[in-house]
Amino acid sequence: MPAKRLAVLVVPVLVLVCSALAQVNELSITAGRTFVSTQTVPSTGLPIHFGNPPTVAFNYGRLLTTHKVFGLSAELPVAIYPRMNLNYRYDLIPKDIGALFVTPSVRLNFFPGQGVSPWVSAGGGYGRFREAPTLVWGGPNPGPTSTNTGVVQFGAGLDVWPWHRWGARLEARDFYSGAPGLNVDTARSRQHNYYVGLGVAHRF
Questions:
Q1: CATH of region 23-203, choose from 3.40.605.10, 1.10.3720.10, 3.40.50.880, 2.40.160.20
Q2: Which DSSP letter does residue 20 get?
Q3: Do the beta carbons of residue 129 and residue 99 sit within 8 Å?
Q4: What sign does the CA torsion over 162, 106, 61, 64 have?
Q5: What average pLDDT does the chain have?
Q6: pLDDT per position as a tens digit, 77-107
Q7: In the chain, pLDDT over 90 holds for what percent of residues?
Q8: What is the Cα–Cα distance from 103 to 124, expressed in whole angstroms?
Q9: What are phi and psi of 38, to 5 degrees?
Q10: Per residue in 127-186, pLDDT tens?
Q11: From CA 172, how far away is CA 175, in angstroms rounded?
């Protein structure tokens, strides 16, 4: 086979192979809401209700290895909700809180590289709550205005890739954190922060 013809055949194959190998990185951004279940203050028997604030989540992932129908990735989920309104009968708690969660994790994808890929994720890291400087009914907050905490993350989701490099992501994650400073004893030292979001993902 002439060298010129061989080059015409080999070069496109090498380009495709290199392109496939290069796509081990992934970025995604989703938007949704965070849900925290109602907590009761034992001393009063009254509930604290948590709003369901708009939340944005970012994620960087890197494929580590694949085996048959499984793909293992390292990922860095980051979720932020600026303001979650609180409701309580007495003027004791902050009027709202905000939160940041950063949780290095591992993710197991089923059918990686295919058009539809469900996945599960687990990890842990850092969380920070911001407590409002004012109380529910307007008085100054005598308690903390920021709280640092460890966070454990569990998640599951579905990636759909209608295009080679761009896709859609549906994800649900539980950021299991310490409790924010609410100035009252809810008999809880930790709480579940459930996030559900939808967005886009990009391979490169």
A1: 2.40.160.20
A2: H
A3: yes
A4: negative
A5: 91
A6: 999 999 999 999 999 999 999 999 999 999 9
A7: 86
A8: 5
A9: -60, 140
A10: 999 999 999 999 999 999 999 999 999 999 999 999 999 999 999 999 999 999 999 999
A11: 10
pLDDT at position 16 is 38
Handedness of CA 126, 131, 136, 141 (dihedral sign): positive
> 189 CB contacts (<8 Å, ≥6 apart)?
178, 179
Left (φ > 0), alpha (ψ -120 to 50) or beta: where does 92 sit? alpha
Cα separation, 183 vs 137, whole angstroms: 14
Q: At 158, which helix (H) or strand (E)? A: strand 146-160
Spell out the domain ranges in the chain. 23-203
Burial of 146 per CB tally in 10 Å (0-12, 13-18, 19+): exposed
pLDDT higher than threshold 80 for residue 7: no
